[in-house]
Design goal:
With about 375 residues, the protein is of the alpha/beta class. The chain has three domains: about 130 residues, Rossmann fold (3-Layer(aba) Sandwich), CATH 3.40.50.10800; about 110 residues, NadA-like (Rossmann fold, 3-Layer(aba) Sandwich), CATH 3.40.50.10800; about 80 residues, Rossmann fold (3-Layer(aba) Sandwich). It has 15 helices and 14 strands. Strands 2-1-3-4-14 form a five-stranded mixed beta sheet. Strands 6-5-7-9-8 form a five-stranded parallel beta sheet, with helices on both faces. The longest helix has 15 residues. The radius of gyration is 21 Å and the shape is globular. It binds 1,3-dihydroxyacetonephosphate (13P) and iron/sulfur cluster. The site of iron/sulfur cluster (SF4) has 11 residues, from loops.
Length: about 375
Amino acid sequence: MPEMETAAFETDLSLFKYDNLEQLPPAYRDLSEGERTERIEAALDELGDDVVILGHNYQRREIVEHADFVGDSYGLSREAAATDADYVIFGGVTFMAESADIITDASQSVILPSMEASCPMAGMAEALQVDAAWAELTAATDEEVIPITYMNSYADLKAFCAEQGGLVCTSSNAADAFEWAFDRGEKVLFLPDKYLGTNTAHELGMAEETVEWDPWDPESKDAIKAVDNDIILWEGYCQVHERFREHHVEQVRSDHPEANVVVHPECRREVVEAADVVGSTATITETVENADPGETWAIGTEIHLANHLDRWNPEVEVLPLCGDACMDCNAMRQIDPNYLTWVLEELLEGRERNVIEVDPETKERAGVAMDRMMEL
Ligand code: 13P
Ligand code: SF4
């Protein structure tokens, strides 16, 4: 396997904005899988309809096994909006739990079992930095700029986008969100994932009209030059997906000539171009579920999903696209099943642990950007 290359990773992994972070008590640290499963099931029986567990496709097997719904960011948002449960336990990362809090009622609590599960990409576009960029860009043009933020961002950025006439999108509706924006303005500022932005621009036939805006590089921040383009891409990326390279696709095709390749749109443009199918984690899941028995699929996304697909589809040969070098998501991994046991047992005692609560004003504004997405 050729040596992996990876871009430097500048963002503070510990980005953390809540002051109610609670760590796992020692008594929960060494539970065996058998004991844990028994205790989780007993707690869920007792809590009944008061609790719903939502699990992102990248969660560990021991989390998705207990989830009422497993899916992509968009599907999880829909489930959060639909549930009447008093407690939404989110197997995912902070921005997902925040989004669930934004679209649930004030009387419902969203619990993120470990609040250290923070997506580094979401931390790459801080609202203050975006404010500064926005002032420069809008001063450089008379045309309307519409901001779109990927779901992988914090609530304050979602609120900012709503205020400036923009919206939120996920990997499953980015092209629709761009079309929505171009119906209302002449330019789009897309945050924070430059690869999803590039791939969406290609999908819309607008590849030649993009420019990158790197908030850490003064040289790239030329507002006059930037607004000469229709799509301005914030310089953020996912360190799990940016590791995939074109040579991984070539290698898998040479080792397994019959293999098909499906990748996530957070991958680099050349990887997406070399793949057979590109789509959200729900599309990746459906692609493998709909494959004929005996087909081979190489999966270009986070390793837990590749492992789930292998387990869930024994008739299909499932390969991780870059073999042993495929990564798990460090943020998603923070949701340990011991934490799940603890937060459930605490609910039985009437205590809510690790509640994600977006402040009411931000919640209201961010909700506008989320609603615009839901209506796409
Ligand atoms: P999906 O919306 O496709 O589930 O992706 C979320 C994510 O964080 C991918 O890295
Ligand atoms: Fe964030 Fe990447 Fe993890 Fe998705 S896989 S949650 S984008 S770090």
